[in-house]
Queue: 3 jobs
Job 1
Amino acid sequence: MHVLGQKGVVSLVLVAGFYGSTIPAFASTDANGKSEPPAKRVAAKVDAPAPLTERERWLLDRVEELEKRVADLESKGNATSSATEPSVALPSSAKATPSAVAANDRVAAVGPQATEKDTSGATKAEKADPFAFADFTWLDGNSRTKDTPYATSFFTPEIRANVDYNYSFSHPKDDTIGGSSEVFRHGEVQVTQLGVGGDVHYDNVRARLMTQFGLYSQTTPRNDASPARGQWNLDNAYRYISEGYGGYHFNALHGINVDAGIFMSYIGLFSYYQFDNWAYQPSYVSSNTPWFFNGVRVQIFPTEHLKVEPWFINGWQSYGRFNGRPGLGVQILWRPNGWLSVLGNQYALGEEALGVHGRVRYHSDDSIEIKYFDKPGNSGLDKMAFSLTGDIGCEHGGGVSCYTDSAKGPKQDFLGFMFYNRFWFHHDRYGLTLGGGKINNPGRYLVLLPPINGATAASGTPYFTENPGDPFKAWDASGTFDYMPSEYITFRGEFNHRAANVPYFSGPGGVTPTSCPTAPLVENICGSPGALVPGFAPDLKKIENRINLSILVKF
């Protein structure tokens, strides 16, 4: 800085203010707003030859004192000034605003911490918001949007669109793709999901609604067998809702939320919405689920790094109960820093086999995600991360055994994993994901039933049985390329290779009967889920290769 630094300028302003408040003005304004010429100024000296009044001496002494203070401040400023501004140490309690976190999550925009008064009247620091200390938009299963247009203090709107084109190298003649909870038709442009909704929040009361129009409104409910028990068509009642719940936020610890309704399943790491994921088609550990829970959850945040979330739900990924016992579960999510996320989901005690009492299910789903490279300034490769998920579970009772073939029944368990590695390029404008996984599920209780002749999870089909001990092993690999010109849109291209040890995927002949017996000779059973059609056999293959092209939007 020059001789008159910032502090010197401030001091001179103070001196000028002092003169203006204590000495008569040198210029005055008349009634017309015109300025009169200023009177001559007299040099202010203590040893002035003219006699001074007592008030004038006091004023001159004050001026000299102020001039000395200005000189002292200037000398100190010159001694410590440098070419750059001095750094400011931020308090450890300062928290990052999620929408303002820099690309490198170790450098975040921060602001002063708000305070509140305790019962004694003393102020204390406000608790930090959970997981707001870093930018976690890099995670698989997390939305990468940092801002929501038109959000208000009462309502945060959300719009999602998932439109895709799938090309199967098997060319099924009925254009039907099976074995996936994300991909359903071949050679067509389809709206897989269109969701409109958002979050309402006022006075600690909260609610969320997200609709699901498009193929998801038909394909998601068909994978849930629970509506087949009893009346009132639960699959129709809920088919256009992907999320719908209400609850309350308690200002305890770092927050406690109590919600009831339908909310997304966490099993398998990936999000139900492809926009949030590193790949369009997740591996079997994630794909082989209907993707939702119906019940009550309590989200407890003991610290800003930890969430503990117990569930009381109707059943495993279901609208209703399958038998006489609901399910219990818990999620534990730990993020100690901005580059590590550890997730565990545990489920137990529900009876999930429709019409089979006493068959109890257990499942453990555990994931880790690590961002191991982060150079936001790079114009080429700027970020890398991986995710690893492992699942283990089993069923016992009702004619099956958890651990081994025994007198109680054949072994019925689930073992699987999936691994994905993600690369970001050119300041996160481009993305590349390579990955895949494998499962072993004897009894096929988590294997998606192929839609042969319109079969559903409730109807079953004689063409692909799900009897105790029926073998099923499968693996897959994929490559995904993303172009992301904005945080609100993704253009995605993906290649998938999938394989199984038994015929499972749609072949050229398809899975839909084309010629059917007709009444009155034979009851027309084409299109009747679970029916055995004389003269018909689905064309199922052990290998599937396909390409997915999609446009994904989220506001």
Job 2
Amino acid sequence: MNKFSFSTFLIFFVFILNLQGQTGADSSKPAPAALQRDSNLVIFHSFFETNDVSPIRLERALVFGYKALDYARKFGTTIQVDSIQQGLEYCYFFISADAARHFDYLTAYKYSERRLNLKDSMFQQERSAEISELKSASESDKKKLEVQLAGMQKELVSMAHTMAAQEERESRNLMISLSVSAFLLIVLFLLLPNYILGRAVSSARKLKPTASDLIKDAVSDKSVLPEPELIKESTLKPAGADLFIGTPLKQTDGVDVKSVPVLSKAEKQNAKHSDSILSARKIQQSLFASDILMKRNLPDSFILDKPSEGVSGDFCWAIEPATGQFYLCLADCKGHGIPGAFRSVLFTGFLNEAVADKKLTSPDAILALVHERIIQRLNPEHAVDRPKEGMDAVLCMFDLKGGWLRFSTANNPVWLIRNGELKEFVSDERTVGRMTAEEKPFKLQTLGLRKGDCIYMFSNGFAKQTNPSGEKFGYKQMQELLISNYTLPMETQQEILNKALLSWEDGTEQVDDILVMGVRV
């Protein structure tokens, strides 16, 4: 055996040992029985059991080796596949080396190139396996991250619900505090003037001399009294004979003592009641739409406000948030006088919460929140058809620059007069704050405005007013009055409405609060 043959045999012997060692390396995972019985693999192994490394024998080994490789890829392990590929690589190497030894460089180059391609394929398979492992690890990490993100999202949702509940509690507590404060302020302003007036009257009475005091002073001043001997007994009368309330005392030597009028208890109570109502009216008006705010946003407009008992359950609320629109609500609270006034103060607070605090912009959403708040405060047991709570209202959002108006209504319609024709926008037949068997959402209506349009909103007090015959003014007569005068300035229309109402009343008592508003675009 020459030197090359011996080296070749030594290399093949090491390769066979390595191949057998790799095949049995993982004893815990034996090769499948089908692969062990594969004839191609058996024949391929047999080529390495002798020292015959002739090119012809190695080329035959390549044929069976590739068949065994295909079978191993389907049914074998990765280690067996690598072992067979290494055997094929050695075959290419020895064939190429033998060809080069015999100066057959073309054959040597061809098998050397095939060997390199096989090594590249083996390298790519290794890289693919590594990439698969990395991808599997990446997918596993991705799933872990997704689980962690899902947990974090649940925590964020839980935190959001907690914060929302806390904000709701704080808002509720704030509204309760504001309502209690408003009630205390109203009570304070109702009672304080009476207390001050009572103290002033008491002090005045202490300072003002009575008729008896005047007589005593006159008697004590001898310079104005006649001499005792000049007074005849027949002219004397029992003490206090002329001292009657409401009759002047007799003049005695130039002293003219007049009687002091004394108010009855009923007159005192009426005076106190009038002062209290006047103070409450001032407080109520401070919460409603101011003249400055109205003139800045709706310069050509009027508000006819006539409470039936000094304070009113009808109110006109307005606000100008940072969004640029102008919100206005004309409402008729259930009841009039002091009960209606209390409700109006409470309901304006709910409107401020909806627009200023909750940042609601759509009129239907604002009325929905006010509806919910009224039920929470005045009807916590959610009783259906409770008639004395809530309010009828028209809530508008004006955008005169954009030329449109959005509004939602509850029992009170909106009238539009355009080119002498009146169009009525029908209202929702429901009351804000009154529970019903079927709670429906408030409708949102939109109106495109034109220059010269006149819009009218009102409570039912004007149409309800009766004359001495008991007839109501009515909506039809009200419409005819507005249509015949809509081209006049708004202030003139207000005067015409007021005069028509007074003429219709003709001295009869006002039956309800009256509130009418007109706006010209």
Job 3
Amino acid sequence: MIANRFIRYFVLISMPIALLAQSDRIAGRVDASRAVKVPGNINPQAKPASDEGPVDPAMQLNYVRLMLKPSAVQQADLDRLLRDQQTPGSPNFRKWLTPEQFADRFGVSPADIIKITEWMQSQGFDVVTVGRARRFIAFNATARQIQNALKTEIHHYRVNGQLHFANTSEPSVPEAIQPLVLGFMGLDDFKPKAKAKTQSKTKAHGKAVKPEFDSDGYYEVSPGDLAIIYDLTPLYQAGYTGSGETIAVMGQSNVQLSDIATFRSTFDLSSNLPKRILVPGSADPGLVSGDEGESDLDLEYAGGMAPDAQVLFVYSTDVSVSVTYAIDQALAQVISLSYAGCELDASSTYAQSLQALAQQANAEGITWLAASGDDGAAMCDTKQATHGASVSLEAALPEVTGVGGTMFTGNNSAYWSSQNNGNNSSALSYIPETVWNESTDTDLSASGGGFSTFYTRPAWQVGPGVPAGTARGVPDVSLTAGVNDDPYAAVEEGQLDGYGGTSASTPTFAAIIVLLNEYLGTNGLGNINPNLYWMAQNTSGVFHDITTGWNGVPCVIGTPNCGSTGQFGYNAGPGWDPATGLGSVDANQMFSKWNTGGGTPQIGSVVNGASLTNTGLSPGLIFTVFGSALGPFSGILYQVDQSTNQFYNNLDYISVLVNGFPAPLLYLGPNQINAIAPYELASNVGQSVAVQVTDNGATSNSFNVMVVATAPAIFSLGNGQGAILNQDGSVNGPSNPAAPGSVIQIYATGEGQIYPAGVDGQLANETLANLPRPVAPFSLTIGGVSATYTYAGTAPQTFDGFFQVDAVVPNNLAPGNQPVILNIGGATSAPLNVAVN
């Protein structure tokens, strides 16, 4: 019998966590004199060389947000919920949360919120609002108050000729609240920039004024044209026009509704004007040059492509504030963001805060779409590149759908009528596309794309064209974005002009998702990316695969990524690519083939089952496969063949092959499989081997993993705590520490080859003296001190590959958490804590 209390631990990460009562995490009172720094909050653009000295101490910073983070258990529960909400057959499939439900499950407790706000008010901060989801607190404060409370000065910085402000050092918070703090948003005014690009004035205005083919051979596209090109017309004819649906457009300028009214009249659309929502607590930014035109374009095409939908325009002085408010209030089931920030210019906590907001949005059923940027592979530049390759931070979020740009290659009578229809459209059919790229040395204009430096590749981002690696790829999809070649007709300040860029393709695709919500009869779709990639591999006719062109841009030779050719970027190709993603869409086909379940299994990653990191596979390692359509939603636990005393390597006609050898199975779920690496891998150390999942004859993609001799990793209980038992058999933790000199039991995997030789999935029923030990040399440290042990081998009454160490806690350790590190054959485990009294 498998009796050890940790024997089921390795499947715990796959099973739903019971919803526990929300616990208070701040113990005792908040002592402002005991402050600790919160790292990762300095904007990379605030360089000392650009520092122009302190701001006026009385300068007011408005709507600064203290971003709060969940506990490790809450985050694990949220990760599971997000997977379940996208898994057909799950009881949680498309069961979206309200902000209050999100707060009660994943937010900070009301009691902790009270303690934090009381501290803020004691420092003179004006608390504007507490988020409905209890994941942020917005406040106003002067530079002097921030310096006194957060221990950081606010200085002016001149960057690219513009004067900004930012904190000079990492902010500090009271020690008692630091574990709950993710970081700050709003301590600087480096905001994402509007990306809408205006047609060159040297080009004749196209069919918005004179609808025919113009003298230069270019057209301006209208909502009616896009409906024909991307096959929305049958959906309109079937009555899907966005009625009863809501889309929220994000901005940081006010707009003149008369511009939107003129646009809708010009293109024979009903008088269905947007509703403006100024974020409560934010100053009205007024009409901001550049930003106003951006928002006009967004509103005109979000509403123009979903003509009967309610369009909300959420605006403030900072578009990130607009996004925060729209998500926290769950204003709409689709959010369109045409602002794009360079990843290299973002702080780590800003990136983490955006992801936290995006996960909340997905849990509420919100689909967030973001522009991939208009600077090709060089998101940090606007002219001849000097900063190297980078992507849009917002589009790189795995929870967000990044929208890139294409341009048409068919500008002739085969695709365009010589006269307009009543709605000023003249396109005749789908028009072939290539990568949008109109870049010059003085103006980068190309589809943004590449690979993220912040976000890892999600399990669903797999399929033809997706290269090996661990970075999130951008974009996901693309639509036409030409600026001088077939731009979008739009109205700004009463004038009709041509606009382009991913600022145009994003609201257009966002409107398509609004119509998809109506078509499916759902109250939101959340993160649509898993389904987009599923369709790319399991259906035909949904995507127009863009295989020509590239998003390369000119660069200064000798600067990052710029070689002797003086340009860098990514080529389009079959399948996904970092220039146009999966390509553009046939909306009618996409709607009819939207996934309702099933499909070929797809592997997204293969990781160590204890550390959940890519350590490589060692013989006997408990490993985890993440992906989609891997197994049944209900989940299947291991089963034992009583005739051989081994785990089965085929459950419900599902198996995992590692270099052709079947792996014993521990758990099967729709997005995750836990298995044991076959001991036959010992002959492949130093080589890359293929991992595949088979399900009733359907075979997944082949995922290559390096074989290593050992890959030690301690199982975790969360919050940095190792899976460790005290001498009395109780679970070790801060509230139940181990005594110095006592023996603790540490549970791990990755010991590699064992003696007697390991048998795949073999249960360990021998006496302790006869259980296998690792062949490679073993040692460990506790609190940085070499520790002795009384046993190190297969855990009794478990199975080969499940490793137990009975270690003696050194006598000279200080009380508190002490790191434990295992060393097997020269490879070391990531440190996890044991609590010592």
